Amino acid sequence: MIKNMIYTGKSGILYYLSDKPFSSGGEGFIHNVNGKPDIVAKIYRIEKLSYEKERKLLKMIDYKPEENMLTQIAWPIDVLYDSYNKFAGFTMRKMSINKDLNVIYEYGSDNYSKLLWENKIIIAENLCAVLHSIHDNGHHVCGDLNPKNISVNPETGFVVFLDTDSYHIQDGINTYRCEVGMPDYLPFEIQNKMRGDITLVTANLPTFTEETDNFALAIHIFQLLMNGAHPFACRVDYSQSHPSVAAPQPVDNIIKGKFPFMMFLTGIKIPVYAPEIKILTKKLQDLFKLAFIDGHKDPTKRPKPEEWHIALRELRQNLTKCSKVSHHQYYTSLSSCPWCEVDNKFKKPSKAAIKQTLIKAPSYTTTMKNKINLKKAAIVIIIASIIGYLISINNNDRQSADTRPRPHEGVSNPITAPANNNQTAPRPAPAPARPQPSPAPPPAAIPPPVGDW
Ligand SMILES: [Zn+2]
Predict the structure, then answer these.
(1) Spatial CB neighbours of 302, under 8 Å, sequence gap ≥ 6
(2) CA–centroid distance, residue 305 to ligand 1 (Å)
(3) How far is ligand 1, taken at its centre, from the CA of residue 310, in Å?
(4) What is the pLDDT of residues 410-432, one digit of tens each?
(5) Distance 273 CA to ligand 1 centre (A)
(6) All domains of the chain, ordered by start, with CATH?
(7) What's the CA-to-centroid distance between 341 and ligand 1, angstroms?
(8) What is the pLDDT of residues 65-102, one digit of tens each?
(9) What is the Å distance from ligand 1's center to 105 Cα?
(10) pTM, to two decimals
């Protein structure tokens, strides 16, 4: 029997949630809603509930996107209250969740490295379509538009924006902040505000805007088109720099407005796995210049989703297939395949190239052999000592210590000890306690070759 948790929506509708969530995260739990297969409910952890969050969600319901976009944007559609009428969470459409966007564009990804460029362009176009619909409403921006908040179906290219309850919502009077952000996707104007103890919660408004979303969108498009390279990633040209010099991180270059793909920077080169920006159409190069150079200090210069959409479609309609590698495609105006060039520059180490190498004489085996040899030596020493001891008794004579091999010293006390019954040393009892090995041939008596005699 399925156990239900009952919540009431702002709309007055009762929602019967499945007892156990099918997913959970730092903020809360996602439950199926019984009797409503196309809806799921997010129930917050108690410590994540706040009046501010409730107000924000109520505002988001007022400003929800077009109905047909609710399968592409995990937008709240009702706010939930528990049996004490306390705010608890919200409902949204059940989404088809696939791969995080960063998994799609990572260079060398085992699963998606052979995804056609054409398909990556389609995914970029679809990002533009979803962001356009969000901005079109006029009241909200994504804010934290990082690749882990974007799900992509690699088979269809279908894109879904997730975690919308963190979005930045404005109603003309109040602003309900997006309080989180991944630094690699935040433009200069936000990074510039976050100094010292200032955070996205305390920074002076405005923080997130349509222009900050457009900056993150341009980064995603760049990474999809350019082998996963972040537009502000770079490497040091060690022919001009000291070996101890470290490459600036993308965040450093964002803050300083250094876009290495279109700016000459002394001692700096683009990542080795990235193609030159000239592999793109002139239109796309111009848009990236606006996004990352002109838009550095003037965010309004950054291209909008619909501008990218047109330029991307133009590129997609002018592709040529590589004659050498079946999954390579490139802009038809180029004279040769840029991906072959990149692959030649950056050979990802194959699994075969880093397979395990066996040590010819494993150290542990040597150690074991040494231990075995030591044991053998000890046995020989003991036997030799006993025999020597017995011989000493029989001959009533003492061996001079320095006539014996040194290793015998530690176990040769019976030989060197005085042959009297008064000794108190905790040593094995002397001769009388032992059987007399009367004939006692020397153990080391390997018969000498007959011929030597
Ligand atoms: Zn090629």
Answers:
(1) 211, 214, 215, 218, 290, 291, 295
(2) 30
(3) 26
(4) 333 332 333 333 333 333 333 33
(5) 14
(6) 4-93 (3.30.200.20), 99-350 (1.10.510.10), 361-417 (no CATH)
(7) 7
(8) 888 889 999 999 999 999 999 999 999 999 888 899 99
(9) 18
(10) 0.75
